[in-house]
Design a protein that fits this description.
- The protein is an all-alpha fold.
- The protein has helices at 3-22, 26-41, 45-49, 54-62, 66-73, 84-93.
- 65% of the residues lie in helices and 0% in strands.
- The protein starts with a helix and ends in an 11-residue tail after the last helix.
Length: 104
């Protein structure tokens, strides 16, 4: 193989690895919800996520108001901004119209 082909393959592999590790995770979001939000919210994760449909969660997140919505649902919640993406993925994955039920 030529140097250019090797370089291109290496770059492609590197991007593939980075893109999977940089994405948020609904399982991690579920763990974070259980650890940080379940007690202050006073509700299970399934009840929290089912407060909106997937489209509604997506609109809220795209508008940049996810953290505000969490505060509205759980006034006592103190969610770290770094956890927002994972908890959003959890909320989206287990929304009221998803048909999925979390184990928390």
């Amino acid at each position: 193989m030529t140097k250019m082909t090797k370089l291109a393959l290496t770059a492609l592999l590197g991007l593939a690895v980075l893109s999977t590790t940089a994405s948020a995770d609904s399982k991690k979001g579920q763990k974070l919800y259980m650890k940080t939000l379940k007690a202050p919210c006073g509700m299970s994760g399934s009840k929290f996520a089912a407060t909106h449909t997937q489209d509604e969660w997506e609109e809220i997140n795209n508008a940049g108001k996810f953290e505000e919505e969490v505060k509205k649902i759980c006034p006592k919640a103190n969610m770290k901004p770094a956890h927002a993406k994972d908890i959003y993925d959890f909320s989206y994955e287990f929304a009221s119209d998803s048909g999925n039920v979390p184990s928390c």
